[in-house]
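Chain and backbone:
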Amino acid sequence: MPTRKFSALIVETAGLSALNRATQRISALQRLYTVCAPPELSRASRVVGDHDGMLVIAADNGAIAAKLKQIMPRLLKNLQKQRAQITGIRIQVQVSGPRPAPRIYAEKPALPVDLIDDFEKLSNRVRDPGLRSALARFAARRRGGR
């Protein structure tokens, strides 16, 4: 069986040819969108379709979608200036992947005993009752944590 280039196979197959044209159109619109949209918004959204002149943009979350809806007239105007053949924009929310893992905070290192003693002594010398009680509670918590 003779070998043929993959690109030639795509061109010869009717269904794959149409899919290839649609993919190339979306890719070209994505490049234009990246140029026209603010960088922080274009990183959190992407072009997912082009249906009858309506550009479909998927946002990663509702906040990004809301911001895109606010700037939609300006974005449409800028895309049309770049010769994108679109007449409107539709925004949809589509989460792109798993949420980032929650932060794990390291345990605070224990304070040296002599430093805790210094806080207790300071709490005895302070005249302000609020500060005095705060320093005493701090020292007591740190001493109890050891």
Summary: The chain has a mean pLDDT of 86.
